[in-house]
């Protein structure tokens, strides 16, 4: 069995590759050429949970196992920790185990990268709200999938921005300017693409449709029913609402709320996969916002895990253990 | 993360210890001091399946992930392959991964060992039907939990018996005689405990209640709805039917069939855990058979996995990898 640490994963996968793998993953999703059992989401203690996401696709059995422990906020351990295990689909044999924490951040960013490449590959300005690990990789995906020259960042806690900028410049060779925005309004005004990467329970951008005309808004952060980053008027002003996963309609407040409140009609919710394979058509006008929301799914984790496993094996990265 | 191969597991756990851990596990089960989400059982391709069994107990998150691939019968790989992963319940961090194939055989045998110790620790004769890996470990559990001096073995395919005997004597120092029985009837006649460890869809012992008076019948093999090793008259002649898991009532043909056919009343199905902690009482007479059936559960896997993890760590067994 091949064991891959966070560093091994980083070494085996560029952001460009990750975006390409996710573009292929959207095609696989559209063709429904996979088996994805319902995930197990359960309480370990108090607010701390364990999530199991299996998917069988191509030549692999993929399993992501993630703990989400808010109680770790009082400790040094990260809140989210996970692994991805790969078994051979032909024989069932477990063949790979890798760090899933960083890989999840890369994958989630790569999914946004596919949307940015699809809708706004010519964009030169990006705005990011929320400067955590997720935001960091979202920016790496943005510079890979667009013509980004200037990036605006905002955080509720401004002290977090300088260390974030340093970390970002460490991770990329591209010359791109990163500018602190003092207000969210300023950031939106300056950016063609606006990425929200927070775990907010209520909207983090203003409820004013006029601000978003012709812009792409990418919602990344909210992943639970009670979380919502995007505001009512944004949804009402868009012709379509583009999402990555049909299951998002029952998992995520940013999709559940707009449907239940009637801000978006179900028929106007479009899967990015359907746009990519040409099953549906959407030509956004410059008078409306484009909204993309990712909740991800086990299929994406299985495909990126399988890719990393194969790549690492080719390059002799990682540790082989007997099990 | 500590990685333990099959050999490391073998080195870290004696059968005696496994039986003791399982006895404690029955007490934990009776006290309901654990969280056990529904398992995910799903098809990977054709008859090949993947099973995920999580359980949170003591200081661990335990997860058993097992593939069952009948298609491997045409290959050199084993049909069943699995791992057990242990995460720290306090922080969520993944800390151990071990071979789950052998450990499952040891654990299943240890569960039978608890029942044999409880009902028949003075037995000197054991009969085993089915000489696979499971049967091998059942015998090791039998000699640990009884006064076994003579063991009778039967297999539908007699050529498998000699290699089985050799393998058995390799695994134990105890002087115990292993004798081939030419017929199942002969085996039953000679044995105080009869263990069935096959994957048969229909009974492997005769449908004649007079054969089993005063004996303990341990059903191990059947684990699916369509499998049944034990016959109608056996069930009808027993005062109680002792099982290890409440969930067995919807998982296993050897429990489903007797209930649905009315051979056993639900009130006469007793959990071994309830006997062990004295919640219920059962004094078998020498005129009736005692029947014990194990289907096991994620709780047992988590507890044995956690025990092996800690023991291996203490003894510096296994390989530590960064993940």
TrEMBL record, chains A, B:
Organism expressing this protein natively: Virgibacillus sediminis
Record protein name field: Ornithine cyclodeaminase family protein
UniProt-listed Pfam families: OCD_Mu_crystall
Chain ranges passing through the membrane: none
Family matches, as InterPro entries: NAD(P)-bd_dom_sf, ODC_Mu_crystall, ODC_N
């Amino acid at each position: 069995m091949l064991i891959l640490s966070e560093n091994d994963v980083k070494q085996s996968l560029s952001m460009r590759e990750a975006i390409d793998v996710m573009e292929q993953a959207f095609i696989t999703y559209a063709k429904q050429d996979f088996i994805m059992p319902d995930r197990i989401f359960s309480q370990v203690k108090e607010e701390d949970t364990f999530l199991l996401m299996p998917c069988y696709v191509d030549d692999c059995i993929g399993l992501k196992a993630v703990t989400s422990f808010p109680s770790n906020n009082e400790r040094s351990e990260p809140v989210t920790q996970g692994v991805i295990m790969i078994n051979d689909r032909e024989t069932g044999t477990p063949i790979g185990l890798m760090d899933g924490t960083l890989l999840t951040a890369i994958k989630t960013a790569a999914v946004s990268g596919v949307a940015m490449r699809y809708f706004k590959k010519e964009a030169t300005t990006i705005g990011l709200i929320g400067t955590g690990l997720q935001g960091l990789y979202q920016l790496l995906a943005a510079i890979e999938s667009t013509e980004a020259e200037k990036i605006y960042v905002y955080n509720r806690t401004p002290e977090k921005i300088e260390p974030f900028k340093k970390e970002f410049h460490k991770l990329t060779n591209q010359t791109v300017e990163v500018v602190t925005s003092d207000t969210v309004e300023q950031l939106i005004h300056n950016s063609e693409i606006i990425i929200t990467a927070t775990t907010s329970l209520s909207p983090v951008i203003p409820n004013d449709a006029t601000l978003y005309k012709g812009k792409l808004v990418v919602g990344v952060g909210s992943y639970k029913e009670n979380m919502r980053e995007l505001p009512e008027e944004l949804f009402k002003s868009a012709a379509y609402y583009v999402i990555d996963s049909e299951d998002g309609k029952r998992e995520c407040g940013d999709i559940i709320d707009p449907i239940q409140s009637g801000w978006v009609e179900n028929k106007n919710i479009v899967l990015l996969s359907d746009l990519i394979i040409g099953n549906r058509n959407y030509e956004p006008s410059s008078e409306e916002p484009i909204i993309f929301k990712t909740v991800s799914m086990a299929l994406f984790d299985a495909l990126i895990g399988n890719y990393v496993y194969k790549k690492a094996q080719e390059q002799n990265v990682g540790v082989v253990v007997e099990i």
